[in-house]
Specification:
By secondary structure, the chain is mostly helical. The protein has 2 domains: 91 residues, Tyrosine recombinase, N-terminal domain (DNA polymerase, domain 1, Orthogonal Bundle), CATH 1.10.150.130; 163 residues, hpI Integrase, Chain A (Orthogonal Bundle), CATH 1.10.443. It contains 12 helices and 7 strands. The strands form 3 sheets. It has a 3-stranded antiparallel beta sheet. It has a two-stranded antiparallel ribbon with strand order 3-4. The protein has a two-stranded antiparallel sheet with strand order 6-7. It is globular and about 60 Å long. The chain starts with a helix and ends in a 37-residue tail after the last helix. This is Tyrosine recombinase XerC. Belongs to the 'phage' integrase family.
Length: 360
C-alpha cells in the first residue's frame, strides 16, 4: 500500500467510502474537511492532525476526483467548488509560524537533550539521552522530515574518505495502531541524497563505531526507540528509559517526552495545544528543525535550487514561497544590483550655419 492509498484508508474512506464517485458533492467534501480538522492524529495522543496532513489529504482527494473527471466518471470536480485555504487546514494552529533555530540554540538544545542543561537552569532534572542529542543535530543539519528520519536504516548512511558522509532518503516509516508501516517519500524529488557537514559526518561515524550495537546490520534502524515503561518516577522525577534498538524512534513521542522539556530548559517555547486552563502555545515544533536546516543553508549563501533539492520539495517555487525572505541580500535577495545601462552615443547634429568666408 503506497502513501496515497494509506491516506485514503486512514482519513477519507470513513467519510466517503459508502458513496459512488459520481455521487460525491461539494457538501460531502465540506463535511470531510470539517472531520479532518477535528480528527485525532495516528499517534494515539488525542491531538488533532497537523495542518500539513490536512492539506496533504485534501490534495490526494482532489487528485482522485480529477482522475475520475478525466476518465468520464464525473462531469466536473466537486473539489473545485469547495473553498479550501490554508486557514481551513490549520484549526487550532491558525497562527502557527516557523521557528528556525540559530546554531547556538541547536547546540544548547542538543546539550540539554544529552543531559546538560544551560548554566543557571533550576528546573526538574533532565534525563540524559546522548543519542537523541545527536539526533537533534542530525535533523537540524539534514532537514529530513520526521517520517523520513524514522525510516532511516544503517545502510542509508554513505561514508567516504575523510570521513565524508551523506544520507539517502529512500523510505518513510509511520506508526499506525502500534504497528510500523513502511511507505515511500512524498514525491519523486523527496527520494534524495543529502550531504552531511564534515563535523557531523565524524560524529555519525563515531556513533556507529561506539554506540550503535547493530551498526553491522544494514537494515537496522538508524535511530533507536525507547523501551516501554515511561519516563517518569512516581514522584514526578524524570529518568532516562533504556533504548530499544529493534524499533525505529517514534518522532512524535520523542518530541513530547524528550524535546519539549529540553526546549523549555534552554528558554525556547515548546508548542502545546490549548487546554481548558490555558491557550495554545505556538512555539518550536519538531518540524522547525527542518526549517532550521533550510534557513541556515540559505543564510550561508547556498543556492535556493540546491536547498530545494536537499529538502525534497516538489518544486523550486515551493521553496521560494516558504523561505524567500531568508535569502540574504548579497546572495540575490532584496538588493537590486543590476548595472547601469551604457549611455547612448550622441550623434553630432548637422549644422545649418554657413561660414561668411570660404577658405581657399
Amino acid at each position: 500500500m503506497d502513501e496515497y492509498e494509506r491516506q485514503l484508508h486512514t482519513y477519507v474512506l470513513g467519510e466517503l467510502g459508502s458513496l459512488a464517485v459520481a455521487a460525491v458533492t461539494p457538501a460531502h467534501l465540506e463535511k470531510l474537511l470539517t472531520a479532518l480538522v477535528r480528527q485525532q492524529s495516528r499517534q494515539g495522543d488525542k491531538k488533532p492532525i497537523t495542518p500539513g496532513t490536512v492539506k496533504h489529504v485534501w490534495d490526494v482527494v482532489r487528485r482522485v476526483l480529477r482522475y475520475a473527471v478525466q476518465h468520464g466518471a464525473l462531469d466536473a470536480n466537486p473539489a473545485d467548488r469547495v473553498d479550501f485555504s490554508a486557514s481551513r487546514a490549520t484549526g487550532d494552529h491558525a497562527e502557527f509560524e516557523h521557528h528556525p533555530l540559530t546554531t547556538a540554540e541547536v547546540g544548547a538544545l542538543s546539550a540539554a537533550v544529552s543531559g546538560y542543561p544551560p548554566e543557571g537552569y533550576d528546573g526538574p532534572e533532565l534525563p540524559a539521552y546522548p543519542v537523541c542529542g545527536l539526533l537533534v543535530e542530525f535533523l537540524a543539519y539534514t532537514g529530513l522530515r520526521a517520517a523520513e528520519a524514522a525510516g532511516l536504516e544503517v545502510a542509508d548512511l554513505r561514508f567516504g574518505p575523510g570521513p565524508t558522509c551523506s544520507v539517502r532518503v529512500a523510505r518513510t516509516k509511520d506508526r499506525k495502531n502500534g504497528v510500523w508501516v513502511v511507505g515511500t517519500p512524498k514525491s519523486k524529488r523527496s527520494r534524495r541524497t543529502v550531504p552531511l557537514p564534515p563535523w557531523l559526518a565524524r560524529r555519525m561515524a563515531d556513533y556507529l563505531a561506539t554506540d550503535h550495537p547493530r551498526a553491522d546490520e544494514p537494515t537496522a534502524p538508524l535511530w533507536p526507540s525507547r523501551k516501554n515503561g515511561g519516563g517518569y518516577r512516581p514522584a514526578g522525577e524524570r529518568y532516562a528509559v533504556p533504548l530499544d534498538w529493534s524499533q525505529p524512534l517514534a518522532l512524535g513521542t520523542f518530541y513530547d517526552t524528550i524535546l519539549k522539556p529540553a526546549l523549555e530548559a534552554v528558554g525556547l517555547p515548546a508548542s502545546r495545544p490549548a487546554t481548558k486552563d490555558a491557550p495554545a502555545t505556538r512555539g518550536v515544533r519538531l518540524h522547525d528543525l527542518r526549517h532550521t536546516f533550510a534557513v541556515l543553508q540559505l543564510s550561508a549563501g547556498t543556492h535556493l535550487m540546491q536547498v530545494s533539492k536537499w529538502l525534497g520539495h516538489s518544486t523550486y517555487t515551493l521553496t521560494l514561497d516558504v523561505y524567500g525572505d531568508y535569502i540574504p541580500e548579497q546572495d540575490g535577495g532584496a538588493a537590486n544590483t543590476l548595472p547601469e545601462p551604457p549611455a547612448p552615443v550622441q550623434r553630432a547634429e548637422a549644422s545649418n550655419v554657413v561660414p561668411l568666408r570660404r577658405e581657399g
